[in-house]
Amino acid sequence: MKFPDNFVFGGATAAYQCEGSTLKYGKGKVAWDDYLKKEGRFSGDPASDFYHQYPIDLKLCRDYGIKGIRISIAWSRIFPNGVGQINQEGVDFYHRVFQECKKQGVEPYVTLHHFDTPDALHKIGDFLNHEIIDQYTNYAKFCFQEYHDEVKYWFTFNEVWPIAVNQYIVGSFPPAIKYDIPKAVYSMHHMMVAHAKAVLAFKEGKYPGQIGIIHSLETKYPYNDNEADYQATKNEDVLANQFVLDATFLGEYTDETLTIIKRLVALNNGTFRVDLEDLEIMKKAAKLNDCLGINYYQSHFIQAYDGENDIFHNGTGDKGTSRFRLKGVGERMFKEGIERTDWDWLIYPQGLYDMIMRIKNQYPNYKAIYITENGMGYKDEFVGGKIDDTPRIDYIRKHLSWILKAIDDGADVKGYFVWSLMDVFSWSNGYNKRYGLFYVDYDSQVRYPKKSASWFKQISETKELDKIEL
């Protein structure tokens, strides 16, 4: 039960969820600023105040054996309006962060887009607007050139499917549209074209390092052993997983993928057509991905469903309240005997193993996999100056065990990044859903190591995991 010596144990963050200073130091608006203000429940400011606290957080990385950190660059901190004028304060901020990473011996793994398109571009359609592909590519080129001496590992997008599903199907992300599968599909497709153009720009620029994309991949299983549930499972898998995986590794969509996608789009009064020039770009880039990031939190068991759309997002931690019934797709079910978090996320670590092995077998041209997010949202309690988060330790241990099994079975998995390094703002859940290895007192911004931080340090330093029964 030992990981390879070069296996990276890291912590993950995202700009809007940790930086704070959302409208300070020249940063432009993102759609979340007005959306959260209108909602009136919570704000992304100050979050974990990483903008000022990053030296403390990076020192904690060094002290606790965390060798890598996922950081996202806020597009609107570099280009306040997405294009045009550059905000030098924002450019310099990330230089300071990367220099501190080097000082503390922590490797930065940088994501260019993590749910935070600049508001000026979001208002004209976000990634429904084909023009944003080139605007994103120009932003990516600027970052490659500006930070190429400091950053070796790049990811273009974080979680293409969750962006689309939450913006246009669930309606929990701005612009809060519900049940619009055609918009979700086109948004995903355009993000994949933008990813491809950024990959080509990186390779044509001959920048040092590696580039890839991060997908949230949730394995789908039939709830019952019957043909109807198998078809419903295939529907949701194609929509959530296979569509973006085809685009990433094939640079095109298989006949099976297109058949299901076009049927779902047509069922919702839309059409889906792929521009041939975009397809050519995707095909070129498909051979050039250096790595894939997998964000994994849960899997789903799918049952056939003939009714109308009916989705309720559990954003408060009131267990048992979530519903996901999508017309023409299927219904997500709670499987008896499988634990779930207060936010109704199934705890099913085998699903991560199954997804890794699926990629190995279905897309053998993949080069390397990083588990770029995995962790447990938990209502941590600060008692007597300590945080005993043993359930989080158990959650991570089980997932690491299945990752080891995947490595033993021939998958090339290079690293694991716990979500999250420290407690951060959670998009539709606010601040009571904590993920971090380090507890953040949001009033004082003081960090406190949780029990999981000490445990994770031991795993990172020894690369050894106690054997558990799978």
How many strand units?
15
**Spatial extent as radius of gyration:** 21 Å
- Largest beta-sheet details: 8 strands, parallel, barrel
How far is the N terminus from the C terminus?
Answer: 12 Å
Order of helices and strands: EHHHEHHEHHEHHEEHHHEEEEEHEHEEEH
- What does the average pLDDT come to? 97
Shape assignment: globular
Oligomer: single chain
The portion of residues assigned to helices is 40-55%
For the largest sheet, list the strands in their spatial order.
Answer: 1-2-3-4-5-7-12-13
How much beta, percentage-wise?
15-25%
Number of helices: 15
Poorly predicted segments? none
Decide which structural class fits the backbone. alpha/beta
Give an overview in words.
The longest helix has 24 residues. The protein starts with 7 loop residues before the first strand and ends in an 8-residue tail after the last helix. Helices cover 41% and strands 15% of the residues. With 470 residues, it is α/β, with parallel strands linked by helices. The chain has 15 helices and 15 strands. The protein is globular.
